[in-house]
Structure formats: structure tokens, C-alpha cells
Amino acid sequence: MQSLFLRGPSVTLRAIILVAASIALMIADHRWHHLEALRVTLETYVIYPMRYTINLPVEFAQWVDESMASRNVLLEENEQLRQQQLRSQVSLQKLSILENENERLRKMLSAQPKMAERVLVSEILSVDLDPYNQQVVLNKGIKDDVYLGQPVIDAWGVLGQVIHTAEHSCIAMLISDPGHAIPVQVNRNGLRGTAYGVGQSDRLELRFIPHNADIEVGDLVITSGLGGRFPPNYPVGRISEVDRPPGETFAQIDVEPAAHLDRSREVLLVWYQSELHQKELDNAGQ
Amino acid sequence: MPGSNLYKAVLPTLIAAFMLSMLPLPDWAEHWRPDWVTLVLIYWVMALPNQVGVTFAWITGLLLDVALGTILGQNAVGIALISWVVLLQYQRIRVFSLVQQALVVLTLLLIKQLLVLWINGLVGRAPDNLLMYFLPSLTGAMIWPWIFQVLRNIRRHFSVTSRL
């Protein structure tokens, strides 16, 4: 029997229970990352089909653009790419010689040889997320062996890392997200530090560097590989500003990201398993 | 049939709202994007308080969290709370004029945004510009009259009514 009024207490009770449940969920998600399984299920079966549909018109426009391109334009592009390929080939030759030499030297020092890294090209889907988070959706997921914490790079530098995975997609946090920090070093002298995101796509902050540190505008900043998550020696950005306010303990140093954080469409997922990360994974598995 | 209402009108409009929330917009427009999912949900809670309740709202909020990549439960708690307010007051809100309704909706959206802001502040992600942050509530309230009429037409077209 339906009454004219909703039963008040039961609605209020339910609301209270749900608020409590939300608080528990938020703590479990934010503090311990226990809810990946729930997120994977919801993302894969409910949200991803919608994302896919939203992305379709963009994909279609691209397809039209490609198929309507005139022969001349294509020929021109082909010629350009051929030249670029030739140039890359030349520098690759030099690189492979250097790589061999490096390996030989490492062997002489009986240092560990560097591991080869596997990469996969992935595309950023044209869907929006929360505007106050710097995150993107990629079109590769668990079925392509994408894992949590996987580094994402573009042609110019480090872009971010995977924070949520689903069957056919994953969400990557950019290095500019206020919740992101990446261990780096200055290429010129090996000075180590950590670059924090501040929520702007053209600026990172290198924090906790003392005033007297040898650091200059224009210095190249690369990953140090210390956290075990990012492979070492990938470019992160260039120092764009160094300010040494007299009253403060640390210098204020800004880094301009090398990766095209807000323009890239095609990105690379890198499989990199340092020993440290492997241990972390083993511990998590136990 | 209690379920049929959901499949005919509520779910399709909610899916449309989700898609609008994820549709890529240029940077300047992103800050004006109204909270489509919450707006549509407010309407359905008001129109069908027996079928669309706090639990339904909460699950929708959870999906919104997954869709936007925010902490699980952040939007869920906001949406559940304001649908609880609507459930307590729906008979009053229903007879308001559209302008009065828009003011109520503005208040509800602001409450939700404030909650989300608190949670964001707790995890260290407070936005720099607070006035910009609350813009979506304003745009949401401004388009409420149209949302209301479109959804009411949809509801009448499928002759979906509350079981009261």
C-alpha cells in the first residue's frame, strides 16, 4: 500500500547510512587504494561504452580528414616523413654504437646491464574528466597488460603515470596534477630533487632545493629513476625560473614540462620494472 | 511495473547527462559546464520520489565519480544528500514557479559543490579560484527551467508517473 507521504525516518536513515558508506569508501579509496576492483568493473561495463561513444565523432572526423586528403598533400607528407625517417635512422645508428659501447663498459665495471623497455602507442580519448584534476583517458587497458603506476611518455618527455585501469582503457595522471610528484635530477650535474605538479600544464615545482644548489635557468631536468616507477634518463622539462628569496629556507624553482601535456594525442606506455617496483608488487601480491 | 519507468525515461536521460558531463569542451567552457547528472537526478527524485530515492542517487553519484576520475564517494555523498533534501521537500518544490525552483536548485547545487570542495580540500586539491569553482552551480540553475520542461515532456510522452 502506498501512502501519500514517503516514510520519513526510513529515508533519513537510508541517507545517514549512505553518507557513512561514502565516508568509508572515500577513505578506502584515497588512503589504501582498496577499491580498484570496483572501479575497474564500473569503468569497464558502464562508463567505457559512454566514453567510446563520445569519442566516436572525433574518430570519425579524423577518418574523414584522412580519407579526403588530396593526393598531393599525402605525397608531400610522405616525402617529409621519409626524410625524417632517414635523419632518425642516422642518429639511431650512432645510438646503437653508443649503446654497445655503454654495455661493454658496464660489463667491464660489472654493473648491471640496462633492461630493454617495451613500449606501446596509445591514444588519448577525447573525453573530459574533472577539470580540477589533471588526468587523461587512454585507449589501452588490462587486456594490453597495462598496469597501475605504469609510466606514460610522449615524443618530447614524461607525461605521467597510470592511476586507474579498466579492461579497454586506463586513466593516467599527468605530472602536472597537484597530487603528483616525480623524482628527477639535473642533467648537467646530477643534482637530485622532486618535481611536484601544481595543477598548471606549463609549470612544475622543484621543491626542497637549498639556495646554494648549482641550478640555472635552461638546465635540462630528467627522471632519476629513484622512485622505481619511472625509467631513468627520460626528459621531464627545463628549468624556467630560479628564485632565491632571502627569507626562505629553500629556493623556488619552476620547471617547464618537456612533454606536451595539453596537446599530445598519441602517447607511449612504457613497460619498466625496476627491482624496487618488482619488490613492491611482490609485497602487494602476498 | 515499478521497473519500467526507470528503463523508459530515467535511465536514457541519465545516460545522456553522463555523456554531456564527459563531452570534451574547450578550456574556457569547461568551467561553465553545469552538473548535468545532478540536475537530471534532482528532477527525477522530485517527479518520482517512490522509484528514484537516495540509494539510486548514491549509485549514480558513484558512477559519476568513476566517470570523472575523482575519489570514489565524493560525488556520491553530495548527490545522496541533496536527493535526501529533495525527498523531504518534493511536494513543496513541485508547486513552485520555475524561477523559485531554479533558486532551490541553485541552493542544492551549491551544497553539493561545497561538500565536494571540502573533500577536495581534505586531500589537498583545493582550487585556486573559488568564484570560478562555483560557476557550474550558477549555469545549472540558469538552465533548470529548460531541463525541467524537457524532462517533463519526456516523462509525459512515456506517460511515466509517480505511483502516488
Care to describe what's here?
The complex is a heterodimer of chains A (286) and B (164). Chain A is of the alpha+beta class and 286 residues long. Chain A contains 4 helices and 12 strands; from the N terminus they run αααββββββββββββα. Chain A has a 6-stranded antiparallel β-sheet with strand order 1-12-3-4-5-2. The radius of gyration of chain A is 24 Å and the shape is globular. The termini of chain A are far apart. With 164 residues, chain B is mostly helical. Chain B has one domain: Orthogonal Bundle (Arp2/3 complex 21 kDa subunit ARPC3), CATH 1.10.1760. Helix content of chain B is 76%, strand content 0%. Chain B is built from 8 helices and no strands. Chain B starts with a helix and ends in a 7-residue tail after the last helix. The mean pLDDT of chain B is 91. Classes of the chains: A alpha+beta (286), B mainly alpha (164).
How is this structure best summarized?
By secondary structure, chain A is of the alpha+beta class. Helix content of chain A is 37%, strand content 23%. Chain A has two domains: 10-65, no CATH class; 122-286, Rod shape-determining protein MreC, domain 2 (Thrombin, subunit H, Beta Barrel), CATH 2.40.10.
Q: What helical percentage do the residues of chain A reach?
A: 25-40%
| Topology of chain A as a string of helices (H) and strands (E) | HHHEEEEEEEEEEEEH
Number of strands of chain B: 0
CATH class of chain B: Mainly Alpha
Outline the biggest β-sheet of chain B.
Answer: none
How many beta-strand runs of chain A? Answer: 12
| Structural domain tally of chain A | 2
Number of domains of chain B: 1
Cα separation of the termini of chain B: 14 Å
Measured as a percent range, the helix fraction of chain B is over 70%
Rough shape of chain B? globular
Largest sheet data of chain A = 6 strands, antiparallel
Q: What topology, given as strand order, has the largest sheet of chain A?
A: 1-12-3-4-5-2
Order of helices and strands of chain B: HHHHHHHH
